[in-house]
Write a structure and sequence with these properties.
With 219 residues, the protein is mostly beta strands. It contains 1 helix and 17 strands. A hairpin with a 7-residue loop joins strand 6 and strand 7.
């Protein structure tokens, strides 16, 4: 079974102390990746259907006073049906954008590869993600942008692109088919402080013996 995207959802919170939204997972060999963009930085925890998700890593932007942050979480075999993605943190309120992507045909032992991450103050956020044919790369962008929303890079499919309008905080996510190295990028008309993270979601293993009875000599 080839790796495929099952569903995509997102939500936005302005000066909130938590954020949750409904996401429906279906199919077999399921996986779930959640991207979080928040400003200012908080220590975020994520759950799906009250099951803790694993942080794949985070990156703050270069603002020395009030940095924003991009982070990704993953979960193998999330429950089927409509359940809540719930984000929580301590330290007070923040502006946050969250996005969720569920997969079918995903690796049930080791869902994600090593996360790539970068920060900058420029018009072109970009990272290079190690991946492979048959995998799917997911990125998450966080930026403080007072001009306009980011434009997704060539070859990528935008999955969410939201702004907390009260403070012009952008959160966006996209996907691209896997290859040995995949460049994930966005662009702005003017320089912005940004943080960008990305991981490659792995496909479920294929092959092996089709008939267990034959392997054990019961024929």
């Amino acid at each position: 079974m080839a790796l495929a995207i099952d569903a995509v959802t997102s939500a936005v919170g302005s000066s909130v102390t938590s954020l949750s939204w409904s996401h429906t997972c279906a199919g077999t060999e399921r996986g779930l990746v959640v991207g979080v963009s928040n400003y200012v930085v908080r220590t975020v925890s994520a759950t799906y259907n009250s099951v803790a998700m694993t942080s794949e890593g985070q990156q703050s932007d270069p603002n020395a006073t009030d940095p924003g942050e991009a982070e990704q979480f993953s979960l193998i075999a999330p429950a089927t049906g409509a359940n809540s993605v719930a984000l929580s943190w301590g330290g007070g309120s923040t502006d946050v954008v969250g996005g969720a992507i569920s997969f079918t045909g995903a690796d049930q032992t080791d869902l994600c590869g090593t996360q790539a991450k970068a920060q900058g103050n420029s018009t072109t956020p970009s990272i290079n993600v190690t991946s492979a044919t048959g995998e799917i790369v997911v990125d998450t962008l966080s930026a403080f942008a007072s001009t306009s929303a980011p434009t997704v890079g060539a070859g990528q499919t935008q999955r969410w692109n939201d702004t907390v309008t009260s403070n012009f905080v952008d959160g966006a996510g996209s996907t691209e088919a896997g290859a040995a190295t995949v460049t994930m990028s966005w662009s702005y008309p003017a320089a912005q402080e940004w943080a960008l993270v990305g991981i490659s979601v792995k496909a479920a293993a294929t092959g092996g013996f089709l008939n267990r009875n034959y392997w054990w000599g019961n024929y």
